[in-house]
């Protein structure tokens, strides 16, 4: 089967096929130009961003080193603080023991002694006053109060 077209139909068919081919080639050319321009813009952006990325990377490296250094120093400070607290605690306990042994105990003994001496003077003074009246010289003093009858 062989189909024949008239001269006008053949012309229209050739015209539309040629037109579509030209449009397709034109679209490919436009697409190629657009891709080239996009590649140039991406290259420009990459060139602009590359120094920023390098600086950011260097800054992040510096921050990481600083953070590590600060962390290590914080550990040292905490360890020293803990040791200082323990030493201070032992010194306070030792000082409290020394104060207890050298100050508090003798003060308690001195207080007891002073109370005894005070009571002795009080009794001696009362006895001296009892003898001055003349009544009952040489008698022992009564410590009980007389009960009313």
Question: What's the quick description here?
Answer:
With 149 residues, the protein is mainly alpha-helical. 85% of the residues lie in helices and 0% in strands.
How many helices does DSSP assign?
A: 1
Amount of helix: over 70%
Main sheet makeup = none
Distance between the termini: 165 Å
Task: Break the fold down into its secondary structure elements and pairings.
Blueprint: H1 7-132
Which features would summarize this protein structure in a list?
mainly alpha
Q: Could you explain the architecture of this structure?
A:
By secondary structure, the chain is mainly α. 85% of the residues lie in helices and 0% in strands. The protein has 1 helix and no strands. The protein has one helix at residues 7-132. It starts with 6 loop residues before the first helix and ends in a 17-residue tail after the last helix.
